[in-house]
Specification:
Pfam families: HET. InterPro entries: HET. With about 200 residues, the protein is α/β, with parallel strands linked by helices. The chain contains 8 helices and 7 strands, in the order αβββαααβαααβββα. The longest helix is centred in the first third of the chain and has 19 residues. The model has no long low-confidence stretch (mean pLDDT about 80).
Length: about 200
Amino acid sequence: RVPQRFVDFNLLSFWLNRCLGLHLESCASDWTLNQDGSLRVIDVRANSVVKATQNCQFLALSYVWGDVQQPLLLKSNCDVLLEPGALDRIEPETPRTIRDAMELCRQLKENYLWVDSLCLLQDELNHNPNQVANMGLVYKAAKATIVASCSVNSNAGLPGVGSNPRLGRREDITIQGIKYTTALSMPTDAAQKSEWNQRGWT
């Protein structure tokens, strides 16, 4: 299959649903989500941070922060970010990768997204080791994880989402009426060599 410049959301949704339908039990987490009621997620419809319900289904974002200044969930602004439309007000400051991930959720008809910078109280990380210790469990409990493996910072965006086309180079040649195209590199190879692969949590 020749990759297109933009993501085929219908195909992606089909793959996700097929995966869940064929081997949900083997992929299901044995961790009870939100045991202490502290898990927060982004509601991509209300554009705000919300407290997750006990059986909340969400996608998680794994990405590289880099040296980009971005909005953070803090004790001082937590109540503000819980207000409907709060993320609309800080959209210009919100990194492109997070905005693209929110749009991807909407296109896949998923309501909730977990992003570390906006769902973990950043000024409690050094004082509440459980938040960091539970990050692996959050990724495990997610319905799926969006991996921004080709980015060097959080403003790189998700290739193929929004106005951000894929830039993979391909050479085409026609021999005796048959069109051939060069294969792109394996995504796993690119991920292993990426900045993202140096993260503490992937």
